[in-house]
Structures are given as C-alpha cells and as structure tokens.
Specification:
CATH class of the largest domain: Alpha Beta
CATH superfamily of the largest domain: P-loop containing nucleotide triphosphate hydrolases
CATH topology of the largest domain: Rossmann fold
CATH architecture of the largest domain: 3-Layer(aba) Sandwich
Structural class: alpha/beta
Order of helices and strands: EEEHEEHEHHHHEHEHEEHHHHEE
Strand content: 15-25%
Number of domains: 2
Radius of gyration: 21 Å
Shape: globular
Number of helices: 12
Bound molecules: adenosine-5'-triphosphate, iron/sulfur cluster, magnesium ion
C-alpha cells in the first residue's frame, strides 16, 4: 500500500475502499448476495501527478472512481482528499470539498446536456457552486474556452455542432470550471480517433502542468496511459493485482495479467516489439458474485500452480515502488513468465 508511506505531498489517499452491490440470486429460495465491484483497494496520488487505473471491462475501475468522488456509496474504506476526510463530510464542508474533484467522462456526447449551449454547459458548475460573483463568471468561461483551445464564438453552439474531440474539450472546460485539484478522467479518449486522442492527451498534459492538476486516469488500454502517468494500478475483478511506478511497470511487469495486457500494446520501439511475444489470456473472468477462494486469475493464468487455487495472494511489496499479488513473485521481483 502506497498509503503506508507518510507523504505530505499526497493529494489523495484511498484506504481499503470497498463497494458492493446487492444482487438477487436466481431460483425460488434465492436469497440476497453481493457483488464486490471494488474489493479492498488502497492507493494514493501525489499532488500534480497521475495515477492510471487499468484493467479489462468489468474490473471495477469506474466504480472505484465513482466511490472516490462519492457518486456511489462506499461500503468500507477511507478517502482522504487534502485536508478532507472526504467520505465523512457533510453540508458546507462537503460542498467545498466537492468543488475540488471533477470528472471527465468517456462519452462527452452523453454527458453534455444537448439542450444547453456550450457556454451554459461550462458555466453551470460555477452557478450551482455559487463560485465568485455572477458578474465575474462570464470572464471565467471565456478564459476556460481559451485554455482548452476553443474559439470564443463557439460558446454559442450546441453540443451536436461540435466534433467528438471538441466536445471532449467542452467536457474538460466544464470540469476545470470550479478550479478542482483532482480530475478523474474515465476513459477520456476511448471514443475518439487515434489522431484526436493524441491531441486530447496533449491538452490534458499541458493543463496539468499549467494548473498543477492531479489526475486519476482510467483506461482499459496501457498504450494510452504509457505517456500520461507517473504510476499505474492494474485491477482485476475488483482487486489491485499490481501497483508500480510507470518505469517499473512497463519495464518489469510482474503479474501475469499485467504482462498479458502489456503484450497487447503495440510498441514503437522495434527491439521491444520483437522481444515481446503476444500473451493471450484464454477464457473469461469467473463469476464476480462467487469469486474463487484462491487467486482470481488462476483459471486463466498460464503458470498457475496448486497453491493458486487454494490461497488468495496478498498484494506485497517487491521493490521500492512496486507491489504485486502473485504467489510466484518474491522479493527478487522476477516475472513468473520469464
Ligand atoms: N450499479 C450497479 N449495480 C450492480 N452492479 C454494478 C453496478 N455498477 C457496476 N456494477 C458491476 O460492477 C463491476 C465493475 O463495473 P465497472 O463499471 O466499475 O467496471 P469497469 O472496469 O469500469 O468496466 P468498463 O471498462 O466496461 O467501463 C461489474 O461486474 C459491473 O457489472
Ligand atoms: S497467483 Fe498463481 S494464478 Fe495468480 S497470477 Fe500468480 S501464478 Fe497466476
Ligand atoms: Mg468503466
């Protein structure tokens, strides 16, 4: 757990976060049980840095982010946001703290009100948080449009009159309106063409530097985050299975699941491309309502052993900034696939 290390530069510290959803069991006598979409995860992010959360569909990335922002209820855990014990705030303090966290969503078209002009979309959070004097808000909107590379006259247009990339710029301007410190980017470029993806990623990087923003950046694609993050947490079935600084994760992936995700990233480096064999993971994850008692990856892991089906591997430190949950990795930090 990064949170074990005392660090005053941390903006966000998440401890033992757990989110569960009630699900009905089938059959006549089917009782209630729970799906643990996020199962006891801990991580932290330093001010001005980016933590990427990666993992395949259904691994719990969005639920974790929503719980951090209090948009879904955490069953357990603690979220420290700067000086705020965020999950326990109420009333005025909560209102103040909420302004510090904003979301950028995958599909800006679905997240922007189609009946509002771009100007009103960006201005809305300022009005609802009563940020500054109403007379000063237009100036702030003008400035935000400029910061994200939109022209002043585009303020009068409706969302459908923009391209996908421009719509995401509106979403970013809106997220920035309340001067947040933490921005949660949930697959912000997945719906965009590759060329536009690069523009939006560059914009996010520039804004991060200019405004000292901290990002929690969610993606199913390690390729997208490789130039974007300082550290990476890999999620599988609600758990963090590997957590490392960017260099360690990309140069020395230790969990077989991380290695498989990484082997799917096309490398620009020819040597690396030739050295990397594509690792295919067969099958699907097990039923999340009834996870296996051992390693959750065991039924798909190419190097699984007997112990993997018997005991759940804990997330353990194997280096300065490197943690992994795998029975076959010890402090020598050697990949079991090597
Ligand atoms: N409101 C809900 N009620 C019940 N189950 C839910 C709810 N929201 C999410 N889940 C379940 O929780 C698990 C994690 O979902 P989540 O959306 O967080 O995954 P994700 O990693 O963001 O996936 P994707 O890459 O597809 O966006 C899934 O099994 C999902 O079906
Ligand atoms: S604990 Fe076992 S099954 Fe799980 S990733 Fe490691 S080797 Fe594979
Ligand atoms: Mg998601």
């Amino acid at each position: 757990m990064v949170g074990e290390i005392e660090n005053n530069d941390e903006l966000l510290n998440v401890e033992n976060l757990t989110v569960r959803f009630p699900v009905k069991r089938g059959g006549l006598f089917g009782g209630k049980s729970y799906l643990y979409a996020v199962d006891d995860i801990s991580f932290s992010i330093k001010r001005g840095e980016t933590l990427a959360i990666v993992g395949e569909s259904g691994s719990g990335k969005t639920t974790a982010a929503l719980a951090v922002a209090r948009l879904v209820k955490a069953f357990k855990g603690k979220v420290q946001l700067g000086e705020f014990d965020f999950l326990n705030l109420q009333d005025e303090e909560l209102r103040k703290a909420r302004a510090k966290v904003q979301f950028i969503f995958q599909d800006p078209y679905a997240s922007l009100n189609p009946r509002l002009r771009a100007e009103a979309i960006v201005r809305e959070p300022l009005d609802s948080l009563e940020a500054g004097l109403p007379s000063g808000r237009q100036g702030r909107v003008d400035q935000l449009f400029k910061s994200v590379g939109l022209r002043p006259e585009q303020q009068r247009l409706f969302p459908h009159q923009f391209s996908g990339g421009q719509r995401q710029r509106i979403g970013i301007a809106r997220a920035l309106s309340t001067q947040p410190e933490l921005i949660i980017c949930d697959e912000p470029v997945s719906a965009l063409d590759v060329a536009v993806q690069a523009q939006i990623l560059n914009l996010l990087r520039r804004l991060q530097k200019e405004m000292d923003l901290t990002y929690l950046f969610i993606s199913h694609d390690l390729g997208v985050v490789q130039h974007m993050c300082d550290s990476v947490a890999v999620m599988y079935m609600g758990k963090i299975v590997e957590h490392a600084d960017r260099k360690s994760l990309f140069n020395n992936p230790l969990h077989p699941y991380t290695s498989a995700l990484l082997s799917a990233v096309p490398s620009v480096d020819k040597k690396r491309r030739e050295a990397t064999k594509r690792i295919l993971i067969p099958g699907d994850p097990p039923d999340p309502i009834d996870p296996p008692k051992g390693c959750r990856f065991a039924n798909r892991c190419p190097v699984a052993q007997k112990i993997c089906n018997e005991k759940e591997p804990p997330l353990q430190s194997v280096g300065v900034d490197h943690k992994v949950a795998c029975h076959l990795v010890d402090e020598r930090a050697k990949s079991p696939l090597a």
